[in-house]
Structure formats: C-alpha cells, structure tokens
Amino acid sequence: MSLVHDPHHLPSSQRTLPGLLQWRADTAPERTLVHISGKDFTVAQLQDAVARRATALQAAGVTRGDRVALLVGNRAEFLEVALACGWMGAIAVPINTASRGEQLQHILNNSGAQLMVIEQALWPSLQHLRWSELALEQLWVLDGEGESPAEGVTAKAMPAPGAEPMPAYASQPGDPLAILYTSGTSGPSKGVVCPHAQFYWWGIFTGSKLGVTSGDVLHTTLPLFHTNALNAMFQAMLFGATIVVEERFSVSQFFERLIRHDATITYLLGAMVPMLLSQEIKPQEREHKVRIALAPGVPGDLTVQFQERCGIGLLDGYGSTETNHIMGNGLHEQRPGYMGKPTGRFDVMVVDENDEPVPDGTPGELLVRSLDPYAFSLGYFGMPEKTVEAWRNLWFHTGDRVVRESDGYFRFLDRIKDSIRRRGENISSYEVEQAILTHPAISNVAVFAVESELAEDEVMAAIVLREGHSMTPEELMQHCETRVTYFSIPRFVEFLDALPTTENGKVQKYKLRERGVTETTWDREAAGYQVKR
Q1: Coil, strand or helix: which one is 433?
Q2: In a domain, 332, yes or no
Q3: Which range of residues forms the domain containing residue 518?
Q4: What does pTM read for this prediction?
Q5: Distance CA 370, CA 347 (A)
Q6: 174-208, pLDDT tens digit by residue?
Q7: 476 and 497 in a common domain
Q8: Which of 302, 360, 407, 440 has its Cβ near the most Cβ atoms within 10 Å?
Q9: Range 523-529, long-range pairs (CB < 8 A, 24+ positions)
Q10: Within this chain, do residues 53 and 156 fall inside the same structural domain, yes or no?
C-alpha cells in the first residue's frame, strides 16, 4: 500500500474507515491515537481492537449491511464496536443516551437493528418499547447482564473481543458507515445515512480549518453519538494527532481537564461558552495550552469576551449531519456573529420559497451541494420521500434561514422549520408533543422555542386539558421523564383554554412564540424542579 503522508491526497480507495486505519497504521503504528475510559490506544492497538470486535460481531451473526445499535456513552466499547461495524461492512447506529419512549421506538424500528449494545445503567430506557414491532434479537449489556425483555430477544453480557482479528471488508467510499439520527422538525427523527467518505471529508475540512497537526492533542467532552465528536476522531486519525474523549462536559472542571491532558485544541457548543463565562475567574483559565476551539453558534459578544478571558480562539462555522464543514474561516478571518464564508469545495445559494436566488442582504433558505464525491449524506434511511424533499432540484435544503452579505460572509438567522435547539441538542417539537399527548388529561399541546438567557433556545409547552381533567406542571414533568430525552422536557409550561389555529385547525406556533413567557407561565427552574436523567 502506498504510504501517502498528506491526508488531503489519499486515493478514493483509502477514504474508508478500514483504509484510513490501515494507512495510519502503516505510517505511525505506535503513535497514541485515542485516550478514552482511562486507556491509551496506539493506532495499531485500536486497529487490532476493532478487528477483534468485528470477529465477535460476526460470530453473533452480523453481516455486511446489518445495523448495530449503540446506546452507550463516551467509553472505549463505543468506539470499538462502532468502528468494528465499519471494518466489517456493517452499519453503526449510535443513539442519544437520553432517548426513550416513542423516540427510541422509532429509531430502533426505522433502523431495523437486530443487535443493540447497551450500558446496564441505561437499561431503564427500554421501558415502554413495543418489542413485537422491532427487529431486535440480541442485546449486549455492558457492566452486567440484563434479563430478556421479551420473547425472542436474548440479553447477555457483552462478549469479549474475538481471539483472532477479522480481515477488513473492502468497503467503498460511498458505502454507509453510520446512521445518525437527527431530530425531525415536522415528524419523527430522520436517520442520516453517512458514507465512509463523508467522515473522511469532515476530518479533512474541519481539521484543516483548525490547523490540526501531528503534535496536537484534541480534547472533546461532546458525545460520540453526535457528528462533532466523531468528526474530531477522524481529524486525529487523518492528521496524526491524539484525541482525548471525556465522559461528559463539566463546567467546573473543564479547564482543569484541558491542563491535565495537555490539550491544544478543544470543541465547544454555543451554550457551553456562556456557562463557562458564568463561573468565577480562576487561574486555570490561562494555564492550559489550548490555542483554538471549534465553537459554532456562539453569540458574537461572547466570542470576544471568551477569547480575551481564556486565551482560546473560537472558530465559528456551519455544517450539519447531512452535509459537511460547509463554511468557516481561519481565526484571522473570523467575524463574531457570522458563520463565515464557504470553504471552497461547496456550491452555496440563498433562495426564496420557490428556490429562486435572492439578493445579498435578503433573508432566505440556505441551499448547498458538494463538489467532492460522497462528502454529503446518502439521504434518510427508510424515508425516500424525505430524501427527495430535502435534495430537490439537486440541492440540499438545509431548512436554515440565513443572510449573505455583499462581502460573502453568511449570518445565521433562525430555523425555517419547526425545530428547537437547546444546549447543543436538536429537539423535535413533534416528538415531544406526541409524548405529552399520551397523557389522558391532555387534549392538545404545542411545543415551541422561547428565548434562553444562555445561547440557543428553551423549550415551552402550551397545554389544553380535557374537559373535567386537571394536572399540575410537576405531573407533566413526571410524565415526560420516561418518554422523552431529559433535555427535551419543557422548562416552561402554560395551561390555556385553547391554542391559536388557522381555519383548517393548524396550530399557529408563531403566535405562541410571540406571546412567549407570561406572568402565568410555570418555570421549572424557578420552581426548583429537578428533571430525572
């Protein structure tokens, strides 16, 4: 195999998970690639662990094209199994560890996964599943052994890696590597089919903008079931860096951990920056070695404040699970409050409701397409009509309302479709509404975004009760806790006699958003109610 040292020029045959692991093993097998769960993995050790996990999956009956679900946090077993799927030609289905109820039911049903790896601590998430509707046959349990939840479903402790490493399957760049579920805006979550080469291009484009080199230590506290952390993993692999994966984000210990691991690059979400700035100033904020952070969606005034206080340059940009690192400039070209300019390998257009381009300075929907093969998702798994709708006229319709300035910089305004983004998580108002409507006392509900004192949104629910019924906000919280992700549970609740609707009965959410929080609105945080996770 040719030892090409520049990751930008790898042949297409190596733009796959097996190809990249083998390429990196040929060039630097003893370099530490990952630190996770308190353990270091060199490139060679990770490749061996992945190949042996693939042997165990094969022994369980997993074959090429099969989907393997993972309800696992940031730990070594997640990486080993997810990458093993790519090694053997199967497809990983990472699931948000907060998923439960109808959302989890939909993901498992839509993906058709026959095997799931789940942490023992997350076993309660399986409550309320209708097992007869699922293809699941096996549950591998970490840290214990779960009892079989239904007839025909076996549950056992996760098997040890295989005794012998499995040879890699000859995957192609366009073969699916993972299905990542992103919240639906007007319906159930959609499974974004991400091919091998999409992760390659993610790593190339994002790593190049961050200036990743072989001496860097990348530090992420973001979950591996999301694009951002997986992207960082491929950045490390491509540029010969080391990635440190923390279990979770901690406001109080963030800078101490950067120092402990000699981190030079880190990853933040918009809501994390105001959280960190809300803490008392301490010496550790300047004792680290981090020079830059990928931090999309940070308000412009906070960007400058954070950089001056903590000495970390914040790199804004734009991308999505379906696309790639579409926009972003180097630090010297950053403009606080702007996403930046297109990176050069994408066509970008701002259009009206008829897909006609609009002049600079005029709000419109952002449309994008790639100039590189398989840099974008292949579509939505099992949802051909949604795929056609999103990719109509041969452009991907982002659903984001933006403005292009005359100098080429893009500014994000809001989501065109009905979605909510809270503390880095995309929330489907539809899914939250469906969960709330299962309560017998509730006649109608509308879930929508209201402004947060932090960046992004807070979740509010307007509730109409059935005649003769009553409920308290606390009872609503308890109902939601076993049915939706904890971050989707409304903070604000208002009981109304009726919801504003159009002539044909469609709820006019814009009127509710305009009304917002009132004197009669119940505030979960003000009431001191603690949501169970």
Answers
A1: helix
A2: no
A3: 422-527
A4: 0.84
A5: 6
A6: 999 999 998 654 567 899 999 999 999 999 999 99
A7: yes
A8: 302
A9: 523/491, 523/492, 524/473, 524/477, 524/489, 524/490, 524/491, 524/492, 524/493, 525/491, 527/473, 527/474, 529/473, 529/474, 529/477
A10: yes
